[in-house]
Amino acid sequence: MSDCMDDIDRQIIQILIQNGRISYTNLAKEVNLSRVAVQARINTLIENGVIERFTAVINPEKTGNTVSAFFNVEVEPKHLQEVAAILAEEPEVSSLYHMTGPSKLHMHGLFKDNREMEAFLEEKLYPLPGITSVDLIKRYKSRIGMNL
Fold first, then answer.
1. What SS3 class is residue 72?
2. How far apart are CA 118 and CA 35, in angstroms?
3. Residues 20, 95, 2, 8, Cα dihedral to 10°
């Protein structure tokens, strides 16, 4: 969190997390400032890199991707960077992280159905060099945004 932020900035961000399309006028009413003051604060938050971009949260099921799956992928250390680069380019992979330890990746994928997920695993993931294990992770909670 940036030191240049105050409580009003935090309020603005919380409101934007809930509704990124809110008008400056309505946002100004929520935080008891003028529209111009709110617009200036948002511009400053963008310039300072606090707000990186505005985006839409898409429901994967409505786009035909009914399977959302998380995986831990263990890779021989010498192949980690190569495997990560290949997986990062796959359209089914929505996020990819290097976990603690020398050779673990945490991956999230979106698939049309279980058959497509199984084909991804068999045809794209398992044949990659140095893959030693793949674990499917059960999700209990997922949230968008952050606490301020």
1. strand
2. 51
3. 20
Report the amino acid identity of residue 102: P
Q: What is the pTM of this model?
A: 0.66
**Calpha distance 97→135 (Å, rounded):** 14
Region class of 101: left (phi > 0), else alpha (psi between -120 and 50), else beta:
left
User: What is the Cα–Cα distance from 117 to 124, expressed in whole angstroms?
Assistant: 10
Amino acid at 23: S
* Residues 5-50: tens digit of each pLDDT: 899 999 999 999 989 999 999 999 999 999 999 999 999 999 999 9
- The helix (run of H) or strand (run of E) holding residue 17 is helix 7-18
For 78-104, the pLDDT digits (tens) are 999 999 999 999 999 999 999 887 789
Q: Where are the beta strands (DSSP E) in the chain?
A: 67-75, 93-98, 104-111, 131-137
Q: Which residues lie across from 107 on neighbouring strands?
A: 71, 96
Contacts of 101 (CB under 8 A, 6+ apart): none
End-to-end C-alpha distance for the chain, whole angstroms: 8
